[in-house]
Fold each of these.
Amino acid sequence: MFPLPTQSTQPSLTRIKGIGIDIAPISRIAAMLSRYNQETLSLLFTSNEMDRCQSTSHPNRYYAACFSTKEAVGKALGIGMVDINWNEVEAQVTDTRLTVNLFGEARLQASKRGIEEWLATWCHWDDYVLVYVLAQ
Amino acid sequence: MVIDALKDILLDLGIPEESITDTALLRKDLQLDSTETVDISLGLKRRLGVNVKLESRKDMTLAEVCDMIDKAMAATPS
């Protein structure tokens, strides 16, 4: 089931400044992870993301969620990942919650668009992870 | 050397050798998606030690990618 934002975080349509959705195949992210060491992967993931993903029982699934969050945030900003670095978008993923943190240019781009808050959720099925973000 | 490294990475991703030409466009001709594009950047970091960002508004040819890598290598302190 795809979790909906709770009542207290229900977005107001007039405040929404961007929407991003992304689906990632877990097996392809796993194949990529297997080819590179942590130092190389730091181009893509923050150290917090790597620590959290490694501590879960399904690291590949959580890495895929992090990857999809970055893509979804890029889409919500309307620029994709063109002007921002992958590791400037950080996903804090738990089974029931997804929080977005931005740094550097990603933070600046969000600020330029008047984005003050990110609402995000995720789910997984079979070999896929889906992430949905709202910028407001 | 740069083109050889790039070619190896593309072959690892399953791109047919005959498609890997100077004029091949990453998205239109090689049909690379974002996961594969970032995989190439990671491969270049591992093999050549350079940070090259391949996400761009304009589709790039492999010759243009090699040019970017050369510039990134020249700018990287040895």
Note: Residues 34-48 of chain B form the longest helix (15 residues).
Amino acid sequence: MDCNVQNNERIKLNKAQKKALRKQQRAKRILDRHNVLNEFKVSDQPSRHLLISNGGLGCGITRTILTSVFGRYGQITNIIMLPDKPFSVLSYQTVTDAKQAYDNIHAIELIAFCDTDVKYLVKSGIKAFILNYLEDYFCETNKDSNLGYPEGLLLIQNYVSEQEEDELLQSIGWYTNHGQASHDTHPCQTVQSDRESMQRRLKHRHVKHYGYEFRYDTNTVDKDKPLHATIPSKCRYICQRMTDDGYIQHQPDQLTVNEYMPGQAGIPPHIDTHSAFQDQIVSLSLLSQIVMDFRHPDGTRISINLPRRSLLVMSGECRYLWSHGITPRKYDVVCDDNDNNSNITLLERSRRVSFTFRKIRHSPCNCKYPNSCDTQLNLLSKAEVNCNPCTDKEAASLEREYVYNIYDNIADHFSGTRHSPWPVIANFLTSLPEGSMVLDIGCGNGKYMNVNKSLYMVGCDRSSGLVSICGERGFEVILCDILNLPFQSQAFDACICIAVIHHLSTTKRRIEALKECIRILRRDGVALVYVWALEQDQRNIDKEKMKHNTSANLSTDGVLTNREADTGVRKFKLRHFEKQDLLVPWHYNNRHNKKFENVANNSASNQTLYHRYYHVFMESELISMCKAINNVTIRESFYDRGNWCVILNKISD
Amino acid sequence: MRLLTHNMLTSHVKGAESGYPLILEAAEVILRNVDFNPEFIKRMLSKVNWDVLYQTAKAIGHLNDIPEQLQPNVENDEEFLRKAHHVLLEVEVKEGHLICPTSKKKFQISNGIPNMLLGEESSS
């Protein structure tokens, strides 16, 4: 029954067909009104793309429903759903499939499908889908717009009846919408000590916890401290229904009830901590609708209206990767439920209560989204995570993500832990002639910049956070990359490069870095280089050796010495490394970050874990690297506090 | 950034034959007192590119009467050493730009710190 046919055979149309045609034409007009992208063009000819004018998010239609109804007529290649729009666009692989779907679905009463998936559609007032073909070109350009539901999000309308809504609210002792106050006389079996944590006036909402307290500071629960109040028995049938319907796999053991008053603030975007909860997290919206915002790490943002008495199911990508939150607003733009075809209306927010059910996780999370997963981030240092890049590009990207970005994030904390210069390095600097020009490559917070005031010290670092700290301390610093030192060749008399080269992730890059250090030296210039040693455990065992080597003076005999400049008392940490290329955790204390100042004062929640990439050196490795550079000689080579160290002399330009 | 540091700086923009000397555009200059050490300045004189120092100081309006040519036997001329001391160590560019002379790429100086990262690594 495509448009062409209709135009030619108008006379033969029966009453039902005329009605469908009217709806179809109306759908065209609606499309014009909503045509945000100006790219949706209705076609008179069959095409692969169908406009479902009353099949959009704005009408409460889900991707799942569309897949279930339309999937039976062919291979669906794409579904475009726009937030708050009543229509959606569905593409098939072939025109034949699309035509088949058109012929079987357009204006056909949905009741004919007698499918559990579409049952609620009928309930919500949508009797039949109105379809139009769309011209080809736009669908291709919008393929990647990704404006549908987040993968793994399900929204089931009218999941509870009004009566059940009342019962649920009463089961937790809260007011219903009809204004009857029912007090905490119901069988939550609370004891006084729990009540405080169960019911707490947060700044912008009223909240109650059952089973475990959900902590908004960490988005987690304290698994060792279950509450006396478990999920109220009167809520349990809902849990059973959700399990029976297949929306959740595990019976929930944690419930958070939130009351949002009109005009109050929302809830900041967050992901429920992976290690704390199982996959499916479900939330019932009672008393009023709300628009929830979902954000993908790539910046995509999708706003979805959660109608009153609907059930939101977040699983998979939606639960693990997308954050969700509610923007503080007084109004939400939603599609009016009473007119499925068109009306976008502005609704004032009113009192809303949400019931969020979760299942506590007792085993490590092994989801597919390691970068958002606290369990897997914790395991990263042991995992085989791309620590052996093949190309320069991969290496640069690894270093950016696991070295430079990390130092920028932890700069203030890192600086706070780097106070006193190490004696061997300080001695190297004090032994240099007065007026020497010295470059500190990877100067960090500048702890060596001020050791010898008779030198002209210039520092440089790849972390803007760290060079800023140096700048504030009045040191002369440059933000730059060790592989491209922005200095003239032979500009300096000496340089130090402490704990830097081990952050480069290929041998080639490490050699290039060392060459850069040498390039900026004049002939006879001298360089001191420190890199982390693999053999830290071994040194730990070798305590005798360390005790005997207490001299911190430089020897100038040119012999390779193995000299621990240590007082015999180790204040520094020895580490055990299982391999050479790895990620090393840094426990960042949020106290140092003003952004988190107002967040919870609980000590456990104040730590953020970061990982820095290291290539830890084997004993001979640094020496071999230096030998690969033909214009230097190794003046000294030694071990100091978990580092392999060399002093090099530049012998020619 | 002091002019002594500027004297050593260059850029490594790919394809640009020479990044030296960088053109200095100063939007904000601060003057900071640094203890005068004649021995130190004498040593610096043998290390700096005087012409670059002179042109740069002139360009940002802080020439402080230093001569265009470095004269012989200036080591004992305290007045000269003090002037050089001022130009080398006491003039600091707080805000401005460094410009590669061949590629014309601009590097920002912000809060006294030049950002010499080339485009490809600075995306972080």
Note: The first helix of chain A runs from residue 3 to 8.
